[in-house]
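Task card 7
Instruction: Convert sequence to structure tokens.
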Amino acid sequence: MQTIPAPLVAPLFNPATFAIPGAVDTLLKRLRDEYPLSQAEVPGYDRHWIVTRHADIQFVSRQNELFHNADRSATVAPIAGEELVRHFTDGDYNLFRSLVQLDGEEHKAHRKVLMLPLAPRSVADMEARMCASVKEEVDKLARADGSIDFVEAIATSYPLHVVMDTIGVPRKDHPEMLKLTQWLFSWGDPDLMRPGSDPTSPEQQAATWKIVFDRFDDYFSELIEQRRADPKADFATAIANADIDGGPMQHSRAISYFAILATAGHDSTAHSTAQAMWTLAEQPELFAQLKNKPELIPAFVEEAIRWTTPVKHFVRHATDDCEVAGRPIKKGDRLYLAYPSGNRDEAVFDDPFTFRLDRGKNRHVGFGHGGHICLGQHLARLEMRLLWEALFEVLDHVEMAGEGRLIASEFVSGPKSVPIRYSLA
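Output:
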């Protein structure tokens, strides 16, 4: 059985690689070409199958009983870090038990809690409220001097406010939610990680996760009590009063539910939005095309999600011996689903390394695939569409005002800074 040389694949497990423009795409293309479904043995980590092709990612993602999320860590974690998490949890590999870390009937029951509120029709009813947030963000352009860091000024704050407002988190607490998100997802980034943490230490990584979980536990335990006593029309009420198999949601599950909404619910949208602006600022012909044909904005949004692929991977675990693309997978094997690779797969996307608006039905896996596909995908699409419609109405020109920077994170990442100069229409 062919094994990927450790020096070749090790950068995929290193947050710093994701801060280098083009580095991940170059690495994953080589893996697709030479090791499309092969095992990796990186020092300090368990063996993983690296799943790089679009078809193989979709196949694994559809087989929910054969490939589990919850049996081990659902993301790449060093052995030492996993062992510390098990110490924290008395044997569980996961501190968080959100939808991501649940399988089978338990996953279905918890997914139903917000399935209707996050369905397309329900999300569409949020449009008026979202438009108020959009206006708040776009007005920043008029108050600035024609130069801003788009990440800091708009791309981060806009989805943060939308999601937190929808959950029922007051505005005064939004900065705390953002900080915890950064600590959790950007634990290896020197600018965003928990202060005092060592990004080279697996033990420190696990310790950060525990600190973040405890902070969320403190905050959302109080919110759960409030919403049980005084229900409101928000997601917090739905989670706090959820009926799971005839009883309330288990406390750790509820805290994890809130945590995934309060982190991934806004962070991935922020990254796709920021990368979209970075692309526009470097491609004036694309800006002109969208300015003249705003009906192309939905296609622009889908391509921005494919192009960015903010969630870089998840790990699935085989529950039985099987085959994937002719490879013998053994029970207990771990499979690393490389979503950016799937979204650059030449077998699916013509000219995959070009940002294009003519892809028709864009078959990207930017929201995952199968039973675990992102529950908030419709909300994310609407958020981005409304923002870009408003931005194209007021922007006359945009260009980069310096070098963009990427976040060092091997799990969820995108631009850290997108400095732009602009003029208003």
